[in-house]
Automatic annotation (TrEMBL):
<dbReference type="GO" id="GO:0008236">
    <property type="term" value="F:serine-type peptidase activity"/>
</dbReference>
<dbReference type="InterPro" id="IPR004447">
    <property type="entry name" value="Peptidase_S41A"/>
</dbReference>
<keyword id="KW-0720">Serine protease</keyword>
<protein>
    <submittedName>
        <fullName>Peptidase S41</fullName>
    </submittedName>
</protein>
<dbReference type="GO" id="GO:0004175">
    <property type="term" value="F:endopeptidase activity"/>
</dbReference>
<keyword id="KW-0645">Protease</keyword>
<dbReference type="GO" id="GO:0006508">
    <property type="term" value="P:proteolysis"/>
</dbReference>
<keyword id="KW-0378">Hydrolase</keyword>
<dbReference type="Pfam" id="PF13180">
    <property type="entry name" value="PDZ_2"/>
</dbReference>
<dbReference type="InterPro" id="IPR005151">
    <property type="entry name" value="Tail-specific_protease"/>
</dbReference>
<dbReference type="Pfam" id="PF03572">
    <property type="entry name" value="Peptidase_S41"/>
</dbReference>
<dbReference type="InterPro" id="IPR001478">
    <property type="entry name" value="PDZ"/>
</dbReference>
<dbReference type="InterPro" id="IPR055210">
    <property type="entry name" value="CtpA/B_N"/>
</dbReference>
<dbReference type="InterPro" id="IPR029045">
    <property type="entry name" value="ClpP/crotonase-like_dom_sf"/>
</dbReference>
<dbReference type="GO" id="GO:0007165">
    <property type="term" value="P:signal transduction"/>
</dbReference>
<comment type="similarity">
    <text>Belongs to the peptidase S41A family.</text>
</comment>
<feature type="domain" description="PDZ">
    <location>
        <begin position="89"/>
        <end position="157"/>
    </location>
</feature>
């Protein structure tokens, strides 16, 4: 079963530029075709290939033509399948450790432009103020229109400390504007945490990397220590703007809070390898000979009240966790509708040092929900409080359903969501536009974070109720 798990692992929202999107690699890249090759179509391909070689205005080498053909074949499937040349594949492998050069931005494509899915905390893109939904229309002096996503990514990557100018088109802003970013070696810290108040912990997961489960277990132990050794009364798990990452790390995070062997997620695809049920047990969240990092967790982690914060930037692996905890009635989901990426990508290395990222399965929550194009509906919808009413317009947020060639949801029109919001909380509209508060060095959460404060208030209320019931 472990070998099957190692073949399906990438559950992030898009292409990472300097933010680590860790993944598993398939050991099988040459599965035999089960159908005969379409000879007529291949003859047409060969004819076009020959015309380009003989008649194109400039000579084109064979490698360029073949790479372009493979690129087009994969990019035409869905927003997440892609071909990676040797350099890109190597970058992806390096990225599994959570450290490589770039801008720190999760991107997709829309109408031929690069579209920002989410900037990653503490990266050049985050510090420059890029926002989900921004369209990147120029890279330095080169228009993006007509580039593939891989071409755009390649241009945005580069040596640390070198500048790049992005021209941004933002809804609500009358004309494009330029932003200069300095490339950096991005060291993404997967888990951040602090004791928000006596008895109440806060954990933020920025991405699901190789060590996310271990770092989460360490955070829970430290929070108990900071709480004087006593169990926590409540925990806020912040998955906002978490674009996803490694599938088995998502299973490990959910397993920290649910009962052993509980179903966390299952996948369904065309091949036997793509049909899996992943439970909260070590064989599904550990890699290789890794020691079980959840074995020593204190018992209170299975019962502590939890509020999970999500928003439109919460995608894939973060949706797996929030969906599992929601279906298990283990946590209250709070925030705004999540991204809605319900597909899994398998990374297949090819013999010449290149690789492909291929969508091979859809995943489903334990209750059988596909969140593809839908996302996770919070139990309590809480709008962000650090922006104006106009900026809270949900039409300004990019989601899976906005991406070209996105997969359909197989349950559309036939499956009701597991929950509808019990409460909708909208902060009072400020008298003047409010800019997001910048955190002080060493801080992990703003005291003026409206959604966090609502989560903390709810946990305190639950604590009072539980105390009265005893």
């Amino acid at each position: 079963m472990r070998s099957k798990l190692q073949k399906i692992g990438l559950v992030g929202a898009g292409v990472m530029l300097g933010a680590a999107l860790t993944l598993n690699y398939s050991a099988v890249a040459d599965r035999e075709a089960t159908q005969a090759l379409p000879l007529d179509e291949l003859r047409t391909f060969a004819e076009v290939y020959g015309k380009i070689k003989s008649d194109y205005v400039e000579p084109v080498d064979d490698k360029t033509l073949i790479d372009s053909a493979i690129n087009g074949m994969l990019s035409g499937l869905d927003p997440h399948s892609a071909y990676m040349n040797a350099d890109e594949f190597k970058d992806l492998q390096v990225g599994t450790q959570g450290e490589f050069g770039g801008l720190g931005i999760e991107v997709g494509m829309e109408d031929g432009f690069v579209k920002v899915v989410s900037p990653i905390d503490d990266t050049p893109a985050f510090k420059a103020g890029l926002k989900p939904g921004d369209l990147i229309i120029k890279l330095d002096d080169t228009p993006v229109k007509g580039m593939t996503i891989n071409d755009a990514v390649k241009r945005m990557r580069g040596k640390p400390n070198t500048p790049i100018v992005l021209t941004i088109l933002r809804k609500g802003v009358s004309k494009p504007f330029a932003v200069t970013l300095i490339r950096a070696v991005i060291k993404v810290k997967s888990v951040k945490y602090k004791l928000a108040e006596n008895g109440y912990g806060y954990i933020r997961i920025t991405q699901f990397q190789e060590r996310t489960g271990e770092d989460l277990a360490h955070a829970l132990e430290v929070l108990q220590k900071d709480n004087g050794g006593a169990p926590l009364k409540g925990l806020v798990l912040d998955l906002r703007n978490d674009p996803g990452g490694l599938l088995n790390s998502a299973v490990g995070v959910a397993a920290a809070f649910v009962k052993p062997n509980s179903l966390v997620v299952y996948t369904d695809g065309r091949t036997a390898d793509a049909k899996m049920k992943l439970n909260a047990s070590p064989e599904y969240y550990l890699r290789g000979n890794q020691a079980d990092y959840l074995k020593g967790l204190p018992a209170w982690t299975k019962t502590v009240p939890i509020v999970v914060l999500v928003n439109g930037g919460s995608a894939s692996a973060s949706e797996i966790v929030s969906g599992a905890l929601q279906d298990d009635k283990r946590a209250i989901i709070m925030g705004t509708q999540s991204f809605g990426k319900g597909s899994v990508q398998t990374v297949l290395p090819l013999g010449n040092g290149t690789g492909i990222k291929l969508t091979t399965a859809r995943y489903y929550t334990p209750a059988g929900r596909s969140i593809q194009n839908k996302g996770i509906t919070p139990d309590i919808v809480v709008e962000e409080g650090t922006v104006t009413g106009a900026q809270r317009d949900p039409n300004l947020n990019i989601r899976e359903a906005d991406l070209d060639r996105h997969l359909d949801n197989p349950q559309t029109g036939t499956h009701k969501p597991a929950t509808t919001p019990a409460i909708i909380i909208v902060p009072e509209k400020p008298a003047k536009p409010v800019k997001p508060e910048k955190l002080e060095p060493g801080e992990v959460i703003s005291k003026n974070d409206f959604q966090f404060n609502q989560a903390l208030s709810l946990l305190k209320g639950l604590s009072i109720i539980r105390a009265r019931e005893k």
